[in-house]
Amino acid sequence: MTDLLDGTVLSPMYETTRRPLYTETTTSQALYLPIAPPTLGSSGAIIGRELYSGKAFIYCPFSAFGDGLPGGNMIVMGDTGRGKSALTKTYTARQIRLGRQVVVLDTKEQKEREEGEWAALGRSITGKAPVKFAPGGGRGASCINPLDPAISGKRQVELLRTIVELGLGKGKGLDEFAGSALRIAIRRARRRAEALDRTPVLADVADALRSPEESDAAAKQRTREQLLADGLEASYVLDRLCGGEEDATGDLTGMLDGPTSLGVDLDADMIVFDLTKVPSGGVAMTVLVAVISVFLEEVWLRPRCECGTEPGQHDRVVVDVNSGAWELGANPGSGCGRYTQRKRILVCEEAWHILGTPDLARLLEKFLKFARGYGLSCIFIVHHLSDIDDSPETQAALKMADTIVIYSQKKAEAEGTVARLGLPAWTAEHITRLRRGIALWKVGEVIYPGVQHLLVEAESHLAFSSGSMTDFETHRDGS
Ligand SMILES: Nc1ncnc2c1ncn2[C@@H]1O[C@H](COP(=O)(O)OP(=O)(O)O)[C@@H](O)[C@H]1O
Ligand SMILES: [Mg+2]
After folding, report:
1. Per-residue pLDDT reduced to its tens digit, 81-137
2. What separation in angstroms does the CA of 74 have from each of 84, 379, 473?
3. Is 290 exposed, middle or buried (0-12, 13-18, 19+ CB in 10 A)?
4. How far apart are CA 348 and CA 455, in angstroms?
5. What is the 3-state secondary structure (H, E, C) of 403-445?
6. Beta strands 56-59 and 45-50: pairing type?
7. Considering only CA atoms, which residue is closest to atom 5 of ligand 1?
8. Within 13 Å of residue 300, how many CA atoms lie on the same side as its CB?
């Protein structure tokens, strides 16, 4: 045991590598409660210590699949200041060291820095500033075009429909005629923009809805006037959302109404989307998250081997001659021996923006359902489940989280969490007593009542979320 107190094992080189724990069998029997479950294997990112067994707690949704974890999606919940973000930040940074790629939707501003709280971590890993969205655009702000050719035609139609329906307001959907007018207008806008050798934007669709062509109407057995009437309301909604040349007050102005201008390196280890300036709960936030998630799905999540090349560049190796079944093997070009899907992690900070909005939960449901096929693990950070709406879409999204991490919550919220997740009754009180940095983990069906997340010094300034409530001892002497 004295080895553990030796200063050398605490040097940075060893800080996030696993240290052996030496103990006599009798000691471990005394320490290890009969209820303590087996730990999760030895490959993956180190989280810290499982307090009941004293063992290192190692977690990796990608390597735990073989051990019965059906999917890699995770929800982290708990009161403010308990360590949710610190855990997720260090966990993703540690996963990046294992070769993963991470995307973060950051919606929480760190007031004193005037940027999202993930910006510092992103910068330290990639050297790049976050991809920032701000109403009205402005210097350094990005724009993402729902009609970008990188997004497939079918997804463009789905997105535009979502945008118009969100703009119409709660509970209002497009009827068949309006839906059809919208599809026709998107097609027409695409052709008109093509003739001008540019990419179509939302204003082109609004324009096409207002100026339908005779041939489009005739193909649907409508008159031009009828087609115009079918799509007129949708065109008004798009006009309002996008604003105009003299009107920069549209909800989506500067963020979604122009050609895509993203300074995104899709191969970067970490991409942070800074949404902190976008009003929460508004149409813009919802639409922006919807468009970003489709963009990610269509562009970022393209299959790619860990060696950086595409599946098509790998040889097909027949594994069963009778059925012709094959798998992807070596890529002679890159010297890679076997295709291994690159694993990705998507983090949503303050995810109630997403889970609490049925339209978004529905869009994300697909993401979650196929996450495993994409080699993707989604992490949602919320305070408590009462933040989250009770719609069937949200319920479905919740069910798809196979790992749930619960930091301390107040009594009523803890009871709500336990009831909603079907946890054993004793966990309700236990959750209220958890100290900062310690959480209850439910991984698949196994409960780890106390997992202490260990932060090392090199990581602590990146996980530090706010100085607003802390007095620092610096500069007292005026130096
Ligand atoms: N495991 C931990 N060990 C030590 N300090 C921690 C730990 N987890 C969090 N903290 C500290 O607590 C503060 C709040 O943590 P944070 O992760 O931002 O909370 P939350 O996201 O739950 O609101 C941070 O400044 C962080 O440095
Ligand atoms: Mg936080």
Report:
1. 999 999 999 999 999 988 899 999 998 777 766 788 899 899 999 988 888 888 887
2. 12, 5, 38
3. buried
4. 21
5. EEEECCCCHHHHHHHHHHHCCCCHHHHHHHHCCCCEEEEEECC
6. antiparallel
7. 437
8. 29
Tallying the residues shown for the chain, one arrives at 479
Atom from ligand 1 closest to the CA of residue 453: 1
Burial 421-449 (b: 16+ CB within 10 A, else e): bebeeebbebbbebeebbbbbbbeeebbb
Q: How far is the centre of ligand 1, averaged over its atoms, from the C-alpha of 51 (Å)? A: 18
Nearest residue (by CA) to ligand 1, atom 9, is 83
Contact 57, 19 (CB under 8 A): no
DSSP string, 345-388: EEEETTTHHHHTSHHHHHHHHHHHHTHHHHTEEEEEEES-GGGS
Residue pLDDT, tens place only, 218-270: 898 999 999 999 999 999 999 888 876 666 677 888 888 888 887 777 788 99
**Residue having the nearest C-alpha atom to atom 10 of ligand 1:** 83
CATH number for the segment(s) 51-143+263-316+326-460: 3.40.50.300
Q: Where are the domains of the chain?
A: 51-143+263-316+326-460, 153-242
Distance 406 CA to ligand 2 centre (A): 13
Structure tokens of 32? 């290890």
Nearest atom of ligand 1 to the alpha carbon of 438: 1
Atom of ligand 1 nearest to the CA of 466: 25
Structural contact between residues 255 and 143, judged by C-beta atoms closer than 8 angstroms: yes
Using DSSP bridges, classify how beta strands 376-382 and 74-77 pair: parallel, antiparallel or unpaired: parallel
How buried is 64 (Cβ within 10 angstroms: 0-12 exposed, 13-18 middle, 19+ buried)? buried
Nearest alpha-carbon partner for 410 in 126, 101, 78? 78
Rounded CA-CA distance 107/275 in Å is 5
220, amino acid identity: K
